[in-house]
Amino acid sequence: MHDPAAGVVRLLPEEHLVRASIALRGLRPTVAELDAVRADPAQLEVLVHQYVQSPEFGLTIKDMWAEVLLLRNDTFLQLPALAELEGYNLNQIYQSTTNEPLELIARIVMDDRPFTDIVTSQSMYADDVVAKMYGVPYDFDSPEVWQETWWRDERPVAGILSSAQVWRRWESNGSNFHRGRANLIARELLCEDFDHRDILVAGGINIADEAAVAYAVRTQPACVGCHAALDPLAGYFWGYKQLIHRNFVGQSINAGCEWDWSNGAQPEFGPSYLYEYYCYPLQQYNVADEFLYAQWGLPEPSYYGTPAKDLAEVGQLIADDPRFSECQARQFFGYYAQIDPNLVPADTALALQADFEASGFDAKALAVQAVLHPSFTVLRSDDPAAPLPLHGGLHAIRPEQYARIVAQLTGYRWWAVADRQDCDAAGNNTVQVYGTQCWETIDLSDSDLYGFRAMAGGVDGQVVTRPIHTATPTKLLALEALASDAAGFVVSADFALPPAERRLLGLVEADTTDEAAIRAQLVALHAVVLGERAEAAGPEVDLSYALWATAFAAHADAPDAWRVALIGLLQDPRMLFY
Amino acid sequence: MARRTPHRRAAPGLSRRGLLSSTFATLAGALAAGPAGATTGAPKAPKNLIWFFANGGWDVTFCMDPKLGNPTIEGPEVDEVAGNPNDRNVRSTFGDLEIVTNESRRPKVTRFFEDHGLDTLVINGIWTGSIVHEGCRMRILTGNSLANVPDLPTQIGSAFGAGLPLGSVDMSGLGYQGRFAASSGRVGARSQLKALLDPSSVFQPAPTAGYSLPLFTPSTGDREAIDTFLRARAAQLQSRVADGGVNDQRVADLLESIDRRRLLHAQGDLLVDRLQISTEPTLRTQALTAVDLITTQMCRSVMVSDIDSWDTHDINALQHDRYDNFFSVLGELVTNLKAAGVFDETVIVVASEMTRTPRRNWKSGKDHWAHTSMLLLGGGIQGNRKIGATDDALESMAVDMATGEPFAGGELLKYDNLAAGLLSFFDIDPAEIYPTITPLDALKA
């Protein structure tokens, strides 16, 4: 649809539905939904509102915030499966700890709570692993895995600002003094990244000399610009342990969770690193440490100059800060449109922000507005002399979306066991100290330790921190492997079932070779797999039939020909881009 | 400012898309010489890059930026054991290079400069613009503070790697491939690429699943048919979305990736043989693989990274072991490249995202310092030189970009000057990506 005023060609309604559906849910729309929108474009908005009520929207919220906060980092060492956690495998520990903050965010969204609750919520969510790890109240007899509960320690409670895993992932090292944690808040909740600016330390300030640094950041003009805001914000995190690594926990448990310090020895990492703090349940927060900033000559905590007692009050200040609502408009639109939040056009961000605030910070409404916004519906420029900037046009399928779509279409998930044979062997030194190293069954599309998420364009939360939104050779290798297994799975499964119960191949039998029948089945596949209305004698089906026929000639086996054809369709450009 | 050919160019008269059509393979040979089109018999021009990275932040006072005797800086000498006369840090001279060595703790550093010092250009006093790991890494790798510029290995691999299975291989995962991602490949944290190229290496489901993987493996003929289908489908898509902008880039990326995937399937045995599934490749394995990848023309650029962290906040003395192992492998890498006859056309960039503070912190570790050093070897780099400098406070000094010499009236040597200088050294016009930046032309001296 040509929009001359905007200088662009917009998506057709059914194309817009595909883009919105994949962005919001990681699923393609059904054929019936596409037909409904073709018949009545007004149905698009109706369907989009339905999409944000679906469980898959909640999964996508988790995907989004895992990427924003870089939480899915299975390549990092997991806490040991010892003591209270003995019997769990590392995948269970990883999934539970990672989902602790993600579950909270997703519940806030799906339960229609104001999105500001992500920084003000008084409760948190725990499963059995998290409950044992941190000692939060939990009903182990309940069938409900993720239960709403409360931190039992004295940490100020403020949504993800109180999350154990957020501050385990975003640890503080050396003389950083929690500035990295403060910058995470600034960058991802307020879209004000201090590290985008080059720093220029002039005049021979020794960063390792804490007193010199404390003085310089208050007096040196080159420092004050950032540190006047950054350091007081960092001051709120002193109650949290700087680090909780596997070795601390393993050593503490192996030492019996206590140590006699009366002989004059000092805890290696300072007075908050006592053995008893590092046994399960972990003591991540100590009130006594809250004021240690003063010991280093650092300024009183405050929120950009506004006094606040603790992180709970900081959370409320963030919720009230207009930068938060604008930033979340940028985060949501940026995630769906696959652009850096800071590159979202100002008019788009401000329009979404206004609607977001008017809705009472309704994240579902924000998501709907984002995918209905005209900026989201651009197909291409109408002027080759003025092509779209990098943040327009085709969107690239994310690995999480691809896996979900493949499962939707074929019923196949990429489960596998990738452990080394000695992952639980008594002779393995690591096992002796830290317990099992087995992950057991994992989803290869949801793993970077053994799987292919980052190789398929995603992030690993640790080293690969920026998604790639286009085709790459390794992405195509990974998608080809998944498509091949899925095609192998669904063809065998389908032909073992009556036609009416099949997922994809309901119009042919295993011995069908008649061209007309094959083409009719391909028409259906183009619709189901790609959302494409193709004619049996049209150019689209000509290509897929040629693929099928070539494979049949090579294999002399119709099911194998269908496997090859499906591998092609599952890697079709209209699957990879939307 | 503009030099020779524009970045990411094809041979004269050919569009990039033309490269990716069915003539892809036949054009490869013509382009293998790289942007400047080096001719047979001419001196070898650099066309390969190996980025050899110390991830976490090295302490340059342990090696390339001597500060022994400076009362404001706590260098490696603070770890000396009084009773061990061999444990002494000294300023050693290798040709014209002055390097800090310690025969007891870092003997491999000495061996490296003995063997390769004459080939080595030391650049000190590079200002990193940040004291955050990722911020520094991004700036050093890309010459930019935003993640929208591809890293240098990817840029150079893309420019020189047409027709090869990959332009660049990122064995570290640390790269920022950006808009040239279609030319690059990742190995995976535990060598997963092997499983994608070798069906016998795939992981199996639990025994209770009732099936084994792969559930179906397309034959070479199947893959060719699928690729033919995908190319034709891409053309159908492009007919609807083309506008000379990002959509065309996406389709071109797809076509390029299809071609490179095909070549990887056909020529990926080397990677399959080198990589061990479920195992993080060690620095040595990465280095050995890098040499093989370059010599067999699997790619033009490889990024390798030490898997031991250099982020010594708690115990800075760990830097001794890090240096010793790192330079041991670096020495092997250089020797192997020379033995393979590709050293003269391969630039090795030895880098870390930052150095560490002049003095130790309360834990006897050292924190982040917004300056670093770099070593360059091979590919026509004139070695036995040291350019750039830091002052007595270990802070970068202004230099003359033409000579690299400290010069009070010059410019601060920044990460972007270095990136532009490296591109220029490879005969790639830096003005497109770094339009306002003065390249460090001293690299070409």
Brief overview:
Chain A has helices at residues 13-25, 31-39, 43-51, 55-69, 90-110, 128-134, 164-169, 179-189, 210-219, 221-234, 246-254, 292-295, 311-320, 322-337, 346-358, 363-372, 399-410, 429-434, 473-495, 515-530, 539-555, 558-570, 573-576, and strands at residues 2-3, 8-10, 124-126, 147-149, 378-381, 415-417, 441-443. With 578 residues, chain A is mainly α.
Layout of helices and strands, plus pairs?
The complex is a heterodimer of chains A (578) and B (445).
Chain A: E1 2-3, E2 8-10, H1 13-25, H2 31-39, H3 43-51, H4 55-69, H5 90-110, E3 124-126, H6 128-134, E4 147-149, H7 164-169, H8 179-189, H9 210-219, H10 221-234, H11 246-254, H12 292-295, H13 311-320, H14 322-337, H15 346-358, H16 363-372, E5 378-381, H17 399-410, E6 415-417, H18 429-434, E7 441-443, H19 473-495, H20 515-530, H21 539-555, H22 558-570, H23 573-576
Helix pairs in contact in A: 1-2, 1-3, 4-5, 8-10, 9-10, 14-15, 14-16, 15-16, 17-19, 19-22, 20-21, 21-22
Chain B: H1 16-19, H2 24-31, E1 48-54, E2 90-94, E3 97-101, H3 107-116, E4 120-127, H4 133-142, H5 152-160, E5 168-170, E6 184-186, H6 193-197, H7 220-241, H8 246-267, H9 269-274, H10 283-295, E7 301-305, H11 318-339, E8 346-352, E9 355-356, E10 368-369, E11 371-377, E12 385-387, E13 398-399, E14 411-412, H12 415-425
Parallel strand pairs in B: 1-7, 1-8, 4-12, 5-6, 5-7
Antiparallel strand pairs in B: 2-3, 4-11, 8-11, 9-10, 13-14
Helix pairs in contact in B: 3-11, 4-12, 7-8, 10-11
